[in-house]
Design a protein that fits this description.
It contains two helices and five strands; from the N terminus they run βαβαβββ. The chain has one domain: Ubiquitin-like (UB roll). By secondary structure, the chain is an alpha+beta fold. It has a five-stranded mixed β-sheet with strand order 2-1-5-3-4, with helices on one face. A hairpin with a 2-residue loop joins strand 3 and strand 4.
């Protein structure tokens, strides 16, 4: 098992009412699994599933990227501003 820190922004941060959460997951869990867990816990985030990008340790990564102990995961939904 490994521990990862998940940074939350926009809709994800609103759903959890905090800017980060920690999770213990099996070694080599793909980053996509983190998104699936988050959506399972907060089904209102389902519309963001196909639009979310992933970052691990300050780099954009594909959904199949395997996580390692201590990784920092970022779920990046689309944002707008003006």
């Amino acid at each position: 098992m490994i521990e990862v820190k998940i940074k939350l922004f926009a809709a994800y941060q609103e759903a959890y009412q905090q800017s980060e959460i920690r999770r213990t997951v099996p070694s080599n869990t793909p980053v996509l699994t983190i998104l699936e867990q988050v959506i399972q816990e907060h089904p209102e985030l389902e519309p963001w599933r196909s639009l979310t990008r992933f970052g691990v340790n300050y780099q954009f990564v594909p959904p199949e990227t395997r996580l390692r102990d201590g990784d920092e995961v970022v779920l990046i939904p689309p944002v707008s501003g003006g």
